[in-house]
Design a protein that fits this description.
It is built from 13 helices and 9 strands. With 287 residues, it is α/β, with parallel strands linked by helices. The strands form 2 sheets. Strands 3-2-1-4-5-6 form a 6-stranded parallel sheet, with helices on both faces. Helix 7 links the parallel strand 8 and strand 9. Helix 11 runs antiparallel to helix 12. It starts with a strand and ends with a helix.
């Protein structure tokens, strides 16, 4: 039986932990705010009071933390010698260079590091259908594979460390762009008093349709962005990461800069912790 731990029991960490426990994977957990672990303890997880304790108790440690700052703060609290022989799998969305720097600090103490960011949200995490984009050595990938196959049906090995992170940023740029673009068209139609369902029938029958439009439609029309799967603050983070990586590579990011402005506006409107479909509120102010 795999000896697995997970650090970072936020929205995704919680959903993923539920799924692993449902699959009879014994789990050691650590979260900065201990109360988020309570329901998982009731379901059989062992809760530790420090990252050090979870690393010591496991062979494979999943990190599901907000960003590279959080990851580095957590790693700072662990004796570097404890990384020896352990496999750390980083699943949050961070920049390729950030991932490479984290790899270096773990590998320099004979630890193993795999990046494995995920596409999909809470329902996919709970049902083991996340899309996984791994980067690292093939050997580390193979040793992680039995666990990854429980987390996502068809994990993808992308290549070196940084390449999985890159593909994930490319996917989230699509999330930001598609959501902003759909918001603007929907808002125009709504403001002109056109029947939104009629507009949607046309969108759905066209080559321009993306399933995410229907997933977010009700939230936008009712302006109810509560109970987020993926919060606005994290999409804003990912958009900024994409912008910085793409600019360094000499790409023209002016299209995404407009989307980033909308996300910043949503954050300023107090929508950081709501669902990212709150981009709609930034696009279309209420009368
Ligand atoms: P979240 O609910 O905000 O959880 C963030 C986690 O990071 C919490 O466990 C939080 O601990 C911890 N954390 C933050 N700062 C910390 C620090 N300084 N020290 C220790 N722990 C710290 O975020 P999430 O939605 O689960 O997302 C996690 C990662 O996955 C992000 O990189 C996100 O972009 C990515 N992602 C999310 C989704 C999604 O649909 N939600 C999908 C794909 C990828 P506390 O509980 O103590 O605050």
């Amino acid at each position: 039986m795999m000896n697995v731990s997970l650090i970072g029991v936020g929205l995704m960490g919680q959903a993923l932990s539920e799924h692993l426990l449902n699959n009879q994977i014994p789990l050691h957990l650590y979260n900065r705010s201990a109360k988020k672990c309570q329901s998982l303890q009731d379901r059989g997880a062992i809760i530790s009071d420090s990252p050090q304790a979870v690393i010591d108790e496991s062979d494979i440690c999943l990190l599901m933390l907000s960003d590279a700052t959080a990851i580095n703060i957590v790693l700072d609290s662990i004796e570097p010698i404890s990384f020896k022989g352990k496999l750390i799998i980083q699943m949050g969305t961070i920049a390729p260079d950030e991932s490479r720097a984290i790899a270096e600090r773990i590998q320099s103490h004979q630890g193993h590091y795999l990046e494995c960011p995920v596409l999909g949200s809470l329902p996919e995490a709970r049902s083991g259908t996340l899309i996984l984009m791994a980067g690292g050595s093939e050997k580390d990938y193979q040793s992680a594979l039995p666990l990854l196959q429980i987390i996502g049906k068809n994990p993808k090995y992308i290549g070196d460390i940084g390449q999985g992170a890159t593909v994930k940023l490319a996917m989230n740029q699509l999330i930001a762009g598609l959501t902003a673009s759909f918001s603007l068209s929907l808002a125009l139609v709504e403001k002109e008093g056109i029947e939104t369902e009629q507009f949607m029938e046309i969108v759905r029958s066209s080559a321009l349709y993306a399933p995410t439009f229907d997933k977010k439609l009700d939230r936008m029309l009712t302006r109810d962005f509560s109970n987020p799967n993926f919060p606005t603050k994290h999409l804003a983070k990912d958009t900024n990461l994409f912008l910085s990586v793409a600019k360094n590579l000499g790409l023209d990011t002016s299209g995404l800069e407009g989307v980033s402005t909308l996300l910043e506006k949503a954050l300023a409107q107090g929508l950081a912790d709501t669902d990212y479909s709150a981009i709609y509120a930034a696009v279309s102010p209420e009368k």
